[in-house]
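Sample A.
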Amino acid sequence: MTVERTMPAGQVGRSVKRLEARKKVSGRAEYVHNIVAPGMLHVKVLRGVHAHARIKSIDTSAAKAMPGVFAVFTGEDIRALVAEPYFGPAFHDQPALALDKVRHFGEPVAAVVAEDPYVAAEAARAIACEYEELEAVLDEVEAMTSPVIVHEVLKPAGMFPDLKHLQGKRHTNIALDYQLRRGDVDAAFAAADHVFEHEFHTQQVMHTPLEPMVSLAIPDGDNLTIHTASQSPSFVRIEIARLLGWPENRVRVKVPHLGGGFGAKLYIKLEALVAFLALLTRRPVKWSLTMEEQFYTITKHASTFRVKSAVTNDGRVTGRRCEVFWNGGAYADIGPRVTQKSGFTAPGPYDIENVSIDSYALYTNRPPAGALRGFGIPQLVWAYESHTDMIARGLGIDPLEFRRKNILREGRPQATGTKLRDAEISGVLEKLAERLEWSKPFDRGTGTIRRGRGIAVGFKASIAPTTSMAIVNIGGDGSATLSMSTVDMGQGSDTAMAQIAAEVLNLETEKIRVVHPDTDTTPYDMATLGSRSTFHMGHAVLRAAEHARAQLAEMAASLGTPDGSNYSFADLFKKKYGMQAGNVVGVGSFIPDYASPARGTGLSDNITPFWMVGGTGVEVEVDTETGRFDVLRMINAADLGRPLNPAIVETQLSGGALMQYGFTRFEEMTFDNGVLLNPSFADYKIPGFNDIPRDIENHIVEARQKSGPFGAKGVGESATFGVSPAIANAIHDAVGVRLTSLPITPEAVFNALRAMEKE
């Protein structure tokens, strides 16, 4: 594994303005929505109206007869083209169009293609589909034992090393059950002075990227080009090639700028259907989702978390048992990875010798769930940090002091057995305590307006093992071009990666051109997800730049100028070739060390290449008459190693925290027997400027990831961790009511207050 090294100073640590900023603010940045191809057809789909139903018949005759309609397709038409049209990163379980059954409300059943998208939409409404409605399973806990089986056959994808063990449990709804056993939990509970047991729930929510999903497939002889709003172009290429039975070099995937993703645009979403339809029509085919349709495509897991702790009289947690049930919806997507990778951190950032974890990925008849900023960690931190406060207050111990007593510190093993390295959990906790002035007197309010404070910390393991590759091309004039398949979706990765290359090459960041993902020219990257890019792609870029620099040094030595520092890159090329000519191409790749969890125990001494750490502290004001509350102050702190670009880091911290703030206070997908009732911004509320806290602080805790590029590691998710429990803990501190389900609404606070009065 690469370790930190000394390089020419200057670029890393600068708050460089985003390289693409001028294009975006001037409206010149290219997005897939702006791309038009000659002869392009638009797709609109008919969607299922039941949570679970058998398709008895589909009548497309009226749609086909409408003027302007080019063609209408069903799942059977797709199956005639590809015998097994099922895709997915964990299981090959999702068809491009429903086959035989619909498994969730809103599932695509038939597709219309026309040159005018409005004609296509009208024709889709003219398709008549007859169903036999079936009993549905909607709750994740009920799915464990329900006689309703969402998938009778399970086909593991087997692509990713960490998911190769996937089999699922046939004749059940369990896609994956991850178990971890460390120490003797039963003995810990038998010897405990106190036992605390609680259950927590989180709701299903949606990513709401402001650029809806869109893909355009263009056939070209024996080849296919796909322009797509995707976070994982390399995966899309591999998966489309697999579906079609083609070699990878016949599939080209291009991603321009991305208008937000947050996990929604990972793996395969729209690409399979547009690829199939482009081949069936021999025309370019574009599918642009409406905001409503995104609610049916991918969501965040609803969850149930049961946690039980053994505690001594002096406040030491000696044992913890966790059960986590993840509502994966109708198709697995990457839910099994969420279940395992997040599941093993369920005991929290605490030094607990005896741990038992059961984490289940479950199929239900809801829209599919997958990756969403935090990758399951916010659901877990919501539970274990609320639980932590409840234990502390039950014992009469200050919540901060209780955390200090139990926090996991450097060199101590986490639940998996992997020792904590370069993770400032304690540092984040202390920064929050310092900024909240926790030890000083606090104004509790008067009358019906009461005030309280809350604190919460969490951590996350990085996804591993995964591969990143990069190319740095030095031209004859000394200019540098960086090619990589990391997708900049607003997080500033183009700028940060250019800073790494610039630091190595002793160039200005602004003079490095970054090539957007194009699988014909940019090398493989597993995906842009899980805050992995800074660490993984950062290493690949660093190695590629070092490789280029080493070749230039060799060139200088071969020309009799061993001290190449007296020559610019352009001078070296001119000296070698007699003119402005030539190239030096540096390549770099990176895959971290990893040890798979042991079968049976789930233990590993190397489960992650680095830990992300984040926490939040808040002050709230609660009206005891109405239940209305305001977050007056929010403090976010994170350990992200060395910040490559401090200004971008600050926006990442505030952006992540405010996204989780919406999930905490407002956002919830509401269902009636599996039918989604609020798939629009009119009914599904995300925070506006008037909803966010008045005072927001973001703090970078000084640390260094010794194994990271220039001491850095990812930060995109860290500020999501502690928001929800910090707010719940502050409300309890203010008025004494404890809420265990998200979202936390004024109605929920009001009802809890009235219930407490009756006790």
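Sample B, a different protein:
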Amino acid sequence: MRLDTSEGAYGKAESGATIIVPGNLKDSEAWQRIISDDKSEVMPPPKSHKKLSDEEKAIIKRWIESGAVYEKHWAFVPAKRPEISSAAPQNAIDSLVATSLNKVGLTLSPEADRATLLRRLSFDLTGLPPTPEELYAFLNDKTDGAYERQVDRLLASPRHGEQMAVAWLDLARYGDTNGYLHDHMRTGWPWRDWVIQSFQNDKPFDEFVIEQIAGDLLPNATPEQILATSFNRNHLITTEGGTIAEEYLNEYAADRVQTIGTTFLGMTMNCCRCHDHKFDPLTQDDFYSLQSYFNSTTEKHEENNKARAFEPFLEIASPLMPTGPKVQVMVMKEAETPRPTFILQRGQYDLPDQNRPVSRHVPKALGSGIGGATENRLSLARWIVSPENPLLARVTMNRLWQQFFGVGLVKSSDDFGLQGDYPTHPELLDWLAEEFRNGNGQSRPWSQRHMIRTIVCSATYRQSSNIRDEHKKNDFDNRLLSRFPRQRLTAEQIRDQALYHTGLMNEQLGGPPVFPYQPPGLWEERSNGSSNTGRYPRRKNEDLYRRSLYTFWKRTSPPALMGIFDAPDRTSCQVRRVSTNTPLQALAMLNDEQFLESAKWIAVRTIQETTSPKDRLTSMFRRLVNRSPETKELASLLQGYETFFARYQSHPEDAAEFLKQGATAAPANIDLPELAAWTVIASVLLNLDETLVKH
């Protein structure tokens, strides 16, 4: 007996009784068993130690009486644009959020103050804080549209593409090494630069998807379109001697299926790789049908090879290094003859079921595809972006919402299946999806920049993060969006913020990965003796001051500072970073060479720009916290400065030792005890909650 399908529920049991008769409680054997007093018949049976509550029984009763209608899972039904109230404070987002809030007696919170708004907006759109000059200009712009002009300025910044790329690199499991035992270096950064430029140029998202899945199969494919398919080759690769080619080629293809499923469909594909699940709409047949799109490449298994790229690869000149040597980047290339694919028993590479061959098709629960003369990766990619696929636009907009609000409208952003969460605002998610897919007459379809602007210009986004008493009762966890959610900055933003305030940041766009500060010995500890990543080659030039996006990413030993602040290791597709709060984070902020050098140079900058201690404190506070200090704060910091200045005056050798941190020495004309004291104050401000958290 099955109750999860209409066919099972409306059918007859072995006893001959009809399980559920729509609209008829008396003849529905399932209902009669639920209300039975006979312990031998009642469901659930007493020995299960489970019992339906009166409320649950009432729901089942109403459902049968109303026709016992079975509907498709909400995420598998095409989105429909809901009607929007004309009374929306800013845009459609606010109307739909306000409707949910009104049901529990809440309203949107008041707008945050301008300084908070600009700081929030700057981090969300560029990953960097506003400068004092930018903040001053915004605070003094009293004309209509001042906020919207800040949005447009930040969206036009080249830093915007870098900020947007970070989350995509997590999804694409991007790294600069192969992983596994040897973890040799690979050349993948030209694809990373392609991603940055795609976001910066607001490449239509359907093109962005198609090119990464199947750019090599497009008619007259350009080198850039072929380069895009490196997305599929970002998986781990082993070159260990004695490994079995068939096993690892199967692993690579399976990884592509799982990444495609999570990234573009919001569906977990891991379980159905091994066996069917009774309540899972994805079957083994679906998994291996998808895998058949991705296992017919010309790639080969390599052993004991330290090459930076393995066939098939593309030789390409570096973009933002055009006169330099060409580099090889792994891409996709279809074999002349598709490889036969069979369902693997229990997912084992060496147990293909010869009686269960699979053909290429999309998951059956999602439709029948779009047809065509040839079923290949390109036809799959075109189906993924087509109206026939109800998931792509929803999944992508949910992640975009998560990027700004910390949690998606569907909390389980990696699982839109039957075991995933129901959206808190289903109509809002559908509106975002349809606006994204079709545009609105004034914006073109598939424009991420239009959707970003729409979200950040909403009153919902511009709310204060202050918690009111009524929030604690009716929206404690803020799932109804009655306020803006406080969120700790990402690992990249925390480091980049400190570096940006120094004035030392090298804002070169793109190029090979760099090797900034890292505690010694980590690579040696995590490396095989024959690996070419056995020693960390820390730089001493301006590469130390590149944005964190460009830091070399060794998979078996990711950048330590990034890991402490919850960046993933990128061995697999990662949809959401979960923020933790640990003592290691505080220790890193107070003692890591990057932050100590940053504090030193923030102090240098402050000393050179102003004179009196009070003015210096005010200037430093405004730069790092993006507001003026209150009287009590100013007095406390001033007392702290005087205490440390006196200490370092009496022990100048300690000041000199303290200021050795970092590769760039401070100007010789600055008094060391004074500089050391101001460095401590800068370190204090870098560690404030207001500095580390987006409010």
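Observation for Sample B: The chain is about 45% helix and 5% strand.
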